[in-house]
Design a protein that fits this description.
It is built from 15 helices and 15 strands. The protein is of the alpha/beta class. It has 3 domains: 258 residues, Rossmann fold; 128 residues, Isoleucyl-tRNA Synthetase, Domain 1 (Orthogonal Bundle); 47 residues. The strands form 5 sheets. Strands 4-3-9-10 form a 4-stranded parallel β-sheet, with helices on both faces. A hairpin with a 2-residue loop joins strand 5 and strand 6. The two termini are 40 Å apart. 42% of the residues are buried. It binds one RNA strand through helix 1, strand 9, helix 7, strand 12 and strand 13.
Length: 452
RNA sequence: GGCGACGUGGCGGAGUGGCUACGCAGCGGCCUGCAAAGCCGUCUACACCGGUUCGAUUCCGGUCGUCGCCUCCA
């Protein structure tokens, strides 16, 4: 088991991961708000935290990965209204899409995926605890968190109160008038006409605010003081700041030990966001490039850095995937040479240092180069399988599909033509094989057929 | 305007106070009937200006530029 370090937004430093119990690690990562199909940007935390969990498990930690689904939110009402559809129906449909789209990445599911709509009871209890402790107050059916009652407010996002603006409502709006302080944010929102989902509460009918949903779901799944809370860097303020404040105020302790944030995917130099209209839906990207190339693309940069989304970037990821698949074809199943242990170890060492996937990939490439040179001695692929497994790319070692009989027959005829030194005919046959989606390679003693 | 991050070779992208990142692309070669795959070799770097240092791409300051957050967006 390696010592693992991770960058913590709260302290601004790379810190050691120190599990509460013996080697138990709880990870909560904020999942999507389900008001439309998710895009490649939403996939980044799914992949980063999913693979981090795999790596920690590889190191011997008992990991519990929780990624929520925010299915009660203003955005969902806003999206459902113009469509003339019930918001709950839209949320349920988009939740299904989210599951299918992320399933297609081939990385499996988190251990738990709580829904906000199924956590209303604990959310109400949470708000009640905040009111009871004097950190929240009701006003005309709304409940607000009193930001200035938390003396550490701002410490996660490193902001001063005077530089903040909860901004949820323009000054002078009804909500702004109900707040005691403009910095305060909503925990419970009284039911409004046009909102078609509503729950009872001690403060009247309504529905929860976004931030309290995550505090309740995270605590319900992992308790307070769990190891890693993650999400996109755009959530640091106000979402995670508010989550942290709520838990401190209600429970008197920090929600998580490490706050870990991934950088944004950028299209045309800007963050990919629906408001900017520069969206690449995940399901389309996977359909176009394949799941392995998409995962490779996402691990090609360090998780904290912004990552440019472009045709070029995906083409390069595709080429990297191809290179690994080729290497796998040349290696037999079985143990890898012991003198390559050091490279296998360096791969995992890199991941242990703030999950440095690009550095790990560089080592993996070195491993391939050296192992390929040992093929004559019958190098086995065990190391490669171990490394790819942590990256969710073990499928690159899967055996190739056998070519259909008619293609094999074409290749045999080509082989015959080559023996007769009728190369024009042989090349025509190669074109025919290619037209059927296969590539023929001449190898010692015969040929090989591979899907193109 | 406030806070924060970043500027590395054609592209993507790590890292380091002095020693080849790595991959893709390019070029040369080996192999091949020609290819493909593979292998070998090789060319393009560390935004700019100062400072600290024997020595800075790496530390400090400034300039310019890019990006994120400050309007529930991963």
């Amino acid at each position: 088991m390696r010592e693992v370090t991770i960058h913590d937004t709260y302290s601004g430093a790379v810190v050691p991961l120190q599990p509460r119990g013996p080697a138990r690690v709880g990870i909560y990562a904020c999942g999507p708000t389900v008001y439309s199909r998710i895009h490649i940007g939403n996939a980044r935390p799914f992949v980063v935290f999913g693979l981090l969990a795999r790596f920690l498990e590889h190191e011997g930690y008992a990991v519990r990965l929780v990624m929520n689904v925010t299915d009660v939110n203003d955005k969902i009402y806003d999206a459902a209204g113009p469509l003339g559809r019930p918001s709950a129906e839209l949320a349920a449909e988009m939740t299904e899409h989210y599951r299918a789209d992320t399933d297609a990445l081939g990385l499996g599911r988190p251990d738990e995926e709580p829904l906000a709509s199924e956590t209303i009871g604990p959310i109400v209890d949470y708000i009640a605890a905040l009111v009871e402790r004097g950190h929240a107050y009701a006003a005309d059916g709304d409940v607000y968190f009193a930001v200035r009652s938390d003396e550490r407010y701002g410490s996660l996002s490193h902001r001063l109160l005077e530089n903040m603006d909860q901004g949820e409502d323009a000054a002078g709006s009804p909500a702004a008038q109900r707040k005691r302080d403009p910095l305060d944010f909503a925990l419970w929102k009284a039911h409004k006409p046009g909102e078609d989902t509503v729950w009872d509460s001690p403060w009247g009918p309504g529905r929860p605010g976004w931030h309290i949903e995550c505090s309740a779901m995270a605590e319900g799944a992992l308790g307070v003081g769990f190891e890693i809370h993650g999400g996109g860097s755009d959530l640091v303020f106000p979402h995670h700041e508010n989550e942290a404040a709520q838990t401190r105020a209600a429970r008197g302790t920090e929600l998580a030990r490490i706050w870990m944030h991934n950088g944004m995917i950028q299209l045309t130099g800007e963050k990919m966001a629906k408001s900017a209209g520069n969206i690449a839906p995940l399901h389309e990207v996977i359909e176009r490039w394949g799941a392995e190339a998409v995962v490779m693309y996402l691990v090609s940069g360090h998780y904290r850095q912004p990552l440019a989304f472009s045709q070029d970037a995906l083409e390069q990821a595709e080429a990297n995937v191809k290179r690994i698949r080729e290497a796998g074809r040349r290696l037999a199943d079985g143990d890898s040479p012991a003198d390559l242990d050091r490279l296998r170890d360096r791969f995992f060492d890199a991941l242990a240092r703030d999950f440095n996937t690009p550095e790990a990939l560089a080592v993996l490439n070195e491993w391939i180069r050296e192992a390929t040179g040992s093929v004559a001695e019958g190098a086995g692929n065990a190391h490669l399988r171990e490394m790819l497994g942590v990256l969710g790319l073990e499928s690159l070692l899967a055996a190739d599909q056998p070519a259909p009989g008619e293609v094999v027959e074409l290749a045999q005829r080509r082989e015959q033509a080559r023996r007769e030194r009728d190369f024009q005919h042989a090349d025509r046959l190669r074109d025919e094989i290619a037209a059927r989606g296969w590539e023929v390679r001449d190898v010692a003693g015969g040929f090989e057929l591979l899907p193109r």
